[in-house]
Structure formats: structure tokens, C-alpha cells
Amino acid sequence: MSAEHISPTDPRIVAAIEELKTLIAARYPEAAFTVFEGEDPEGIYLKATVDIEDSSDALEPVLDKLHELEVEQELPIYVVTSQPLERIAAQLKAMASAPRPSILRLLP
After folding, report:
1. For a surface tag, which of 20, 26, 30, 108 has the fewest beta carbons within 10 Å of its beta carbon?
2. Please, what's the b/e burial string for 58-92 (b: 16 or more CB within 10 A of its CB; e: otherwise)?
3. What is the extent of the structural domain holding 14?
4. pTM of the prediction?
């Protein structure tokens, strides 16, 4: 199926997105979801925001289903993951306050 002929309201897309959300939410109940159309590659994207150390771990529950949707059913559906902004801000703050090695201490 060509991405040009698919929309987020297509019943097959709606059903697939809901199934992907259910699979992710079963493991990460606090996950937040956004659906949008993307261009690289063209298709429908499900963004899962999950408050875990490595947000890519949220893909694990949907990998088999994504293969089925993208390859076998030829639906242009993609999942991307992210962390909440609060977690990112805390990580950046911790990095900024961490001691940095001095170049002078590294020289013999």
C-alpha cells in the first residue's frame, strides 16, 4: 500500500494504532501517545512517550506486530519513542553539575 493513499482515519490504520498502543501500555501503563503523519518515510507515526531510562526499550512489545503491519500488510505505520521533557531536563541538569575532568590534570 502506498503511503500517499493512506490517512490516519483509515479503519485499518486506526485498528493497527490502537493495537500498538495497547501492547505498549500493557508494559508501560503511564505511556502517552501521539499520532501524526510523517515524511521520512511517508506514513503514519505513533509516538510513545515513556518515562524510562532508555525509551527505545518501549519498542520491544511491538516489534513483532510492527513487522506484521509494515512487511506483511504493507501498512506505512511506524513507532517512535521518547522520554518526557522533565526526565530529559533532569538528565541535562545532572550532566551540567557533574565534575568535568581538567585538561591540566590529564597532562603528564
Report:
1. 108
2. beebbeebbeebbeeeebbbbbbbbbeeebeeeee
3. 3-106
4. 0.76
